[in-house]
Amino acid sequence: MWLKAQLETAITLYLDKNNYFSSATLAGAAEEIFGKLLESNGLSNSLSNEADRLMSLLTRAELDELKTKKGEKTGDLMFSISKKLAKTPEC
What range defines the domain where residue 31 resides? Predict the structure, then answer.
């Protein structure tokens, strides 16, 4: 399966310390596809579960603030959340 090969290549590149950027790109793409496959079969993926857990640590005001940032890229939104959670002792 090409998806498995993509993930294996990402792992090999990482372990060989050959090309971290390509490794992260391949792994991220594989995670996205695997996640969609899981969702299409009624299952959840670990990234969604972790995002839900982290969101549960935010206050209502923080959640409302994040919801007003429509159009913001996911990475930027996650960075914004992580800055807030860095102040949370539970993390």
Answer: 2-40
